[in-house]
Description:
alpha+beta, eight-stranded mixed sheet
Amino acid sequence: MLRERFRVFAIRGFLAAVVFASALPVIAQSAPAKMTYSKIAPAEQYLMKDRGAEIALARTAAPKSISDSAEIWVLGRHGFELAVKGTNGFVCIVGRGWTSAADPDFWDPKVRVPMCVNAAGARSYLVRIAKETEWGLEGRTPAQMTEAIKDAVDKKEVPPMEPGAMCYMTGKQGYGGDTNPHWPAHLMFFFTDADLASWGANLPGSPVIGLSDPTVEHLTQFVVEVKKWSDGTDAGATSATHKHQK
């Protein structure tokens, strides 16, 4: 079952981090319970030296028919910056550990996770990702980040999920951290406090995984694995070779 491919649904207040156990069974069984990166690294370690390489990696999140016309953001010293203007409403970025890795890898400077949100996702979900990234660069701890996003949601400083908000995560060149280096190709759909049963999520035989955080971020996410990477190759086996891009 698809459900058996997922070991952890770790909702850290501001993040639903999905760890795909079947891709790396040994790591999944022995993943550390505590944070393996105990403090923030120097800021330059989170940046990619080659801006063009970061743009190219961001585009791998979605098929070329989408990402070639998407807006691209790259990480600067104080947060994401516009690098390429788009025409189709999609925005592609490379997530870092603060928003795109399991808790033990929160401060891992090697994390590089391509993701591409549609227009609705850019106006809602990506707003939160951008804020969390700024806070991460400031050196906030996971607990401080959770408190910050809870406060922002409570004060309506960030928008609720817009209807239709979704994200492509179908690039095979990313790196999700030591706990879960490579994620299977998948799509994510975002809602505010949705009913998991409305999608038949987490039921026997259902291909839909549902994650819900009703207390901090009021974020519901539905995850659906797909069969193809963004380049059209078979994603049935998550054996993509990763080289750390600096």
